[in-house]
What does this fold into?
Amino acid sequence: MIRDEALNGYVRGVLCATVGKDRCAATRIYVLRVPVFNASMSPNGTMRVYSGLLLRVRNEAELGAILGHEFGHFERRHSLERFKAQRTGTDLLSWAAVLASMAPGYQTRAGYNDMRWSVYGQLYRYKRDQEREADLLGLGYLNAGMLRPQAAASVWRNVMAEAEASSRARGLSKPRYDLFAFSASHPPDVERAATMAALADPQGDGRDDGADRYAKALAPWLPTFLDDQIKLNDFGASDYLIAMLAEPGWTPRLWLARGDLYRTRGNPRDLVNAAEFYANAIAADAALADAYRGLGLSLLKTGRPSEGRTALRRYLHLKPDAPDAGMIAMLAPAEPVEP
It folds into this structure.
C-alpha cells in the first residue's frame, strides 16, 4: 500500500470531483503498488486503485471515468447483488446434484450438466451486465461534471492499443476485441469504447481534462511505476506506455525508462539503442545518475569498455551511496593516480 498522503489525497480529489463531495465521503481509497490496470470496490466503500492504472491513464478525466465506474458498483450494490445471485445459483445446483445422484439414468445426468452450464452462463452474463451498468454510471458522472466525458472512450482505446503492441512484440496475432470467452467477467473492450464514445455529451468535448494537474501529481511516483512495469517483462506493452507518456514531449526520466527497457531485453541492437536513449537522458539532465549507470553497462556489452567505465565512474561520483556501488566499482575501478 502506498502511504503517500499527497497521492492518496489527489486520487480522492479526482473521485470527489467526478461523483460529488457528498457521495465520495462514503468511500475509503487505498492506492496499491501493483503494476496492473485495475481498480476494485468493496460493498463497505473500500476502493483499491492499482499503480498500473495510474500509469496508464493520462489525465483526470480518464481517471475519473474509472473511479466513477467503481463507485457505480458501490452505489448500485453490485457486489451484494452478485453474491445473492451466486448463492441462489449454487444452492440450485447443489440440490440438483443430490437429485441427479439418486437417478441412475444417463439422461438425468446429462440434464444436470446442461443445467450447470446454464446457471454458470447466467452468472457470468449477470456480471457483464453489471459492468455495463457501472460504465454508464461512470460516464453519467462525467457528463454531469466539469471533466471531459470523451476521455472515457479513450481509456479503452488505449487498453486495446497496448494489448496490440504487446502481442506484436511477442509475435502473436492481433487480439480479437469483438469476441469474449464464456467465462468473461467484462464486456469486450471494443464494445465499451464504442458505447462510451456514443453516449458522451458532445457539449463536454471542450471541457478541461486535467492532463497538466495529473502529470504533476504523478511525477514523484512515475519512475517507480515505470520500473515496476518494465520488470513485468512485457516489452511491447512497456514500450507503448513509455511512448504514450512521451507524447507531450520526451523528458530525461522517460529516456531513462526507455533505455532500461531496451537494455533489459538485451539483444545486440537493443543495447545500441539503449546507449542512445541513455545519452539523450544525460543530454537533457547531466545530473541524472542512473542514466550514467545504464549507459556504462550498455557500452560495456557493446564493445566500448573504456567509455563504459568512464560512464560508470560518473555514476559513482554522482551517487556514491548507491546500493550497487560495490559491484559497479568492480566493473569500473578508479584510475590509478600517477606518483
Summary: The chain has a mean pLDDT of 93. The first strand starts at residue 28 and ends at 32. The beta strands are 28-32, 39-41, 46-50. The domain at 250-331 is CATH 1.25.40.10 (Serine Threonine Protein Phosphatase 5, Tetratricopeptide repeat).
